[in-house]
Amino acid sequence: xxxxxxxxxxxxxxxxxxxxxxxxxxxxxxxxxxxxxxxxxxxxxxxxxxxxxxxxxxxxxxxxxxxxxxxxxxxxxxxxxxxxxxxxxxxxxxxxxxxxxxxxxxxxxxxxxxxxxxxxxxxxxxxxxxxxxxxxxxxxxxxxxxxxxxxxxxxxxxxxxxxxxxxxxxxxxxxxxxxxxxxxxxxxxxxxxxxxxxxxxxxxxxxxxxxxxxxxxxxxxxxx
Length: 224
Ligand SMILES: Nc1ncnc2c1ncn2[C@@H]1O[C@H](COP(=O)(O)OP(=O)(O)OP(=O)(O)O)[C@@H](O)[C@H]1O
Prior knowledge:
The protein is an alpha/beta fold. Helices cover 35% and strands 27% of the residues.
């Protein structure tokens, strides 16, 4: 078997709320193989976003070990985590967080230029990703000129712009109607598979989860 792209061992996270301690993650173990698309299911408040934040290396406060591509993130200084995030991870959120003053293409070009790609290559990749998501006719539209589903597809293109080994998606179609959600998720899965990326996708939608390679369930702070 290949070396996992993500390996979580004994991942724990607690929060203090009104003088009370809530143990949200109580020892999560998970391996994700390269190219594997894993659905993370669990009811509202079960800790799916908290788990994605841990793997995304965006927040501290976790106990346990988080290895990304074989590197132990919890042992790295902040700039090491930033490097690991840039080299390996792409993010899609429920609300797209696109830059409102930039058009669809520029929103996908930007992260590539930050990563050091030259502008011409970045433009070509942005246009190719957006076109493969059915947005070839929306390349110069700003977010406010796009529908919710189109905005979310731009966010998918942006997440894949730097060819991440792992895409982290938190309810990526959660604010879309059922039909649009199905279409966007289908395009997301097709693109992620085509790119050979792995993905961890948080959702509470069983039907959407069944379209992924494997389903894991967060319950009482551990994965069933
Ligand atoms: N910064 C925080 N401070 C205090 N409690 C928090 C914080 N972040 C999350 N929690 C609590 O942790 C629990 C898990 O939250 P989380 O957002 O991870 O759940 P979720 O499964 O993603 O939920 P949803 O499906 O509704 O998005 C919740 O009870 C939440 O109130």
